[in-house]
Fold RNA methyltransferase.
Amino acid sequence: MTEHRSRPPGRPPGGGGSTGGGNPWGPRRDSSPSGARPPREDARPQAPEHREAQRTPRVDDTRRGEGRPDAGRPYASRPPQARPHDPRSRQHARPYEPRARDARPYDAHGDDARHEPRHDARHEEPGDEAAHAARTHRQTELRLYGLNAVNAVFSRRPEAIRKLYLLESRIPAVQPMLKWCVAHRVGYRVAEEADLDRLAASTHHEGLVADVLREEPQTLSPWLRDLPAGPQCALWLDGVGNPHNFGAILRSAAHFGVSAVLLPKHSPLALSGAAARVAEGGAEIVPLVRLGRSDNAIAQLRSAGFTLAATLVHGGRDVFTADLPERVVYVIGAEGEGMDRDLAQACDMRISIPGSGAVESLNVAAATAVLLARWRHR
């Protein structure tokens, strides 16, 4: 940028300087000859000329220039040289800040928690009330699906219904249920087929899904106390675990008027949505009874007049010719594995279903249906 100054008054437009030349305003202040002004006392001494040429090069000098070990050598032919360590670099280093994708929790033991599920009751901390409530919800409620399974709950204990999901095409068939829900402020939602598939985890929902309160199994003593006099038949399931077999057994038990299904103390068997659907309403008709110790349960059943009959694939009496008692408990083992040997020996009688021998045996649910039919028509 050019600076323009006005001419001082009284200064001629040309010449007039002590040094002449072309500057009409006289010599510039810094253009006075050397020695025109005495040097300042604090002025630095002038560096000698050719100082760099007189300097003895250091062996470890890494800068370019004449007189240095690598001066004039191309980079490709120079040996690699390590950079000198600067102890101050760590002092002024920028502290580590995790990136967004790394800013995830790690547990106290140094394990990476990035792959932990967001919420899993197995990893909940003590005192986590929300996780405890979710787990309690799963233990106290059951998701049913299928028209007969849900209708059976509505007929026997409608207050157990917590929410309904249904296809629009199902509305006419469940009008009484919907009216009850409206009157008792129970929610229901009309959903799409895909939504019901997801809710039921099955395509066999028949357009109706319900969340209901789970009914806990009874214990043996109260069940025996309330049992009416006369002929009674019960099923003791030892090792049965398949939910579809369980559901089919419940359906047959309801059809033939079984008094209860007895579950061993440590059996994991419990009613599920799949079992209830296969039972077609039978799960609401036949009560479940949870047993204590096997020897105590056997003694209690005998005291109530029951005969325990172990059902075997081979080696038992023909069920069609055996004299069946009025009060019987059929002890049924797992398909393929059979029942516990000690339990079979503790029973009062052993029976089998004869067949052609073309296959080893019947499915456990089919065999149960045959046994119940034989007792019903004894």
Notes: The chain is about 25% helix and 15% strand. The CA atoms of residues 231 and 326 lie 5 Å apart. The two ends are 122 Å apart (CA to CA).
